[in-house]
């Protein structure tokens, strides 16, 4: 059995290396060109239409506000990987991996934008009158390939069971390491908290995430900024290190074992893509219920999701690890996932450990809430609302089982299951890319949308 698991892990490592990174990179570049580099041409407009309109009444129809859809997405994408995955990328790819993480973030924006545009374009109302959508709907209605939509739904619904177990184990082991609470109690507590949120329906999920996500992001990034200001003299050196080592091999130094340029690019791309979930097909499920007057307007919110997740939260972790120098300490390479905690402890003492632990708990709990929502929507698509309720109970039970380490052997299959979701979704987005282009052109040339917004802005400033 051990040999089989090792073979599965080796295949998974290969698959999530060059093959899938290349697929996502090429798809992102193709869509960036097709959509005429919109993310580089309209950054100020996109910011004004998203974060600049948070307190305005949203235009159009929907179940959630656009901001609630964004925070629901971020609940899932901002997770433990933002804290423990970034230092691993630095230790195995060098500081230059941070630069390539930024590059893939900008390229991935077009892919994530396209997914969300299609989610709004092909969404529909369920029996409760709520808007639902995502890859399973645009595969079925847009491509007329219901079998592909069913494939996506079944694969995601099943994949989320071990995924919930891993999340449950993550929060239970984090709490045990810090305050020695037995994992079973943490698992039960987490299951109760998640139940109170998800059984209240989509609107309660939206209300909870719009409060929790800004708080947890500000709490963690704020603490990271304090460390950055304490180390402000190191900032120019850190930036220089990131940019220079992105293009030239970095030799072994201190706790770092050295990295070739290929490794640096791979780790940077991998961290950026895994963190913001561009192309995975999960984000459009969160954006489908949003209140909007045009698919493209909601697509802008998914671009902001990458800004917050990768360009802000992941970068905050990277700067803490690099400016504190913990990545150079002896033995750092043997425990890269713990480097963020080491860095925070270095500056805040014992409180630093609690800050990271608290951030991890918040990140993981909010991730679990939205994972249950994603899984329930697959069951609803396949079998109806009653099946969605059954799956919610299954996912909550999986938290407790995962907390005590049940079925760890199936966790090895997680990445392969994710590939079974990602590949059909990316193919569907590429096949429907001409529609995305048409919708984007319609939005930017219509007197009802972009041109009207620009006129209103000019009237205010004039």
From TrEMBL:
Recorded topology in the membrane: Multi-pass membrane protein
Top-level taxon of origin: Bacteria
GO CC field: plasma membrane
Keywords: Cell membrane, Membrane, Symport, Transmembrane, Transmembrane helix, Transport
Keyword Translocase included in the entry's annotation: no
GO molecular function, one term: amino acid:sodium symporter activity
Entry's localization field: Cell membrane
Primary site of residence: membrane
Transmembrane helix is among the record's keywords: yes
Membrane spanning stretches: 14-38, 74-93, 99-120, 147-164, 184-202, 211-232, 238-262, 300-327, 347-373, 393-410, 416-433
Record Gene3D superfamilies: Amino acid/polyamine transporter I
PANTHER family, sorted: AGSS FAMILY TRANSPORTER, SODIUM-ALANINE (PTHR30330), TRANSCRIPTIONAL REGULATOR, LRP FAMILY (PTHR30330:SF3)
Entries under NCBIfam families matching the protein: agcS
Family the UniProt entry places it in: Belongs to the alanine or glycine:cation symporter (AGCS) (TC 2.A.25) family.
The protein's name in its UniProt record: Sodium:alanine symporter family protein
Origin species: Siminovitchia fortis
């Amino acid at each position: 059995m051990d040999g089989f698991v090792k073979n599965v892990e080796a295949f998974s490592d290969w698959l999530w290396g060059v093959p899938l990174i290349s697929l996502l990179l090429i798809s992102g570049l193709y869509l960036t060109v097709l959509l005429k580099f919109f993310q580089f041409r309209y950054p100020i407009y996109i910011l004004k239409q998203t974060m600049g309109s948070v307190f305005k009444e949203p235009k159009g129809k929907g179940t959630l506000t656009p901001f609630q859809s964004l925070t629901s997405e971020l609940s899932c994408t901002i997770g433990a990987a933002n804290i423990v995955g970034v230092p691993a990328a630095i230790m195995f790819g060098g500081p230059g991996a941070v630069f390539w993480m930024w590059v893939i973030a900008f390229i991935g924006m077009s892919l994530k934008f396209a997914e969300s545009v299609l989610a709004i374009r092909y969404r529909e109302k369920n029996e409760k009158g709520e808007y639902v959508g995502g890859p399973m709907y645009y595969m079925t209605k847009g491509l007329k390939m219901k079998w592909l939509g069913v494939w996506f739904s079944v694969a995601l619904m099943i994949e989320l069971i071990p995924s919930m177990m891993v999340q449950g184990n993550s929060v239970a082991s984090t709490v045990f390491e810090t305050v020695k609470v037995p994992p079973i109690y943490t698992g039960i507590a987490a299951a109760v908290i998640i139940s109170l949120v998800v059984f209240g329906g989509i609107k309660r999920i939206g209300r909870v995430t719009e409060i929790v996500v800004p708080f947890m992001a500000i709490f963690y990034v704020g603490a990271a900024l304090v460390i950055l200001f304490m180390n402000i003299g190191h900032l120019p050196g850190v930036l220089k290190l990131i940019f220079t080592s992105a293009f030239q091999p970095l030799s072994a130094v201190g706790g770092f074992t050295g990295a070739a340029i290929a490794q640096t690019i791979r780790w940077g791309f991998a961290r950026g893509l895994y963190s913001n979930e561009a192309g995975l097909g999960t984000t459009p499920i969160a954006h489908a219920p949003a209140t909007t007057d045009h698919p493209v307007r909601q697509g802008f919110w998914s671009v902001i999701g990458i800004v917050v997740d990768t360009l802000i939260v992941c970068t905050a972790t990277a700067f803490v690890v690099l400016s504190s120098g913990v990545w150079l300490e002896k033995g750092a390479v043997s425990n890269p996932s713990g480097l963020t905690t080491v860095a925070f402890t270095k500056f805040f003492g014992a409180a630093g450990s609690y800050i990271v632990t608290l951030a991890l708990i918040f990140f993981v709990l909010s991730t679990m809430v939205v994972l249950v929502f994603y899984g329930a929507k697959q069951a609803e698509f396949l079998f109806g609302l009653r099946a969605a309720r059954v799956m919610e109970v299954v996912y909550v039970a999986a938290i407790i089982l995962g907390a005590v380490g049940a079925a760890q052997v199936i966790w090895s299959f997680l990445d392969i299951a994710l590939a079974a979701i990602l590949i059909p979704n990316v193919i569907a987005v590429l096949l429907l890319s001409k529609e995305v282009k048409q919708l984007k052109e319609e939005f930017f040339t219509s007197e009802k949308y972009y041109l009207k917004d620009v006129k209103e802005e000019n009237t205010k400033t004039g």
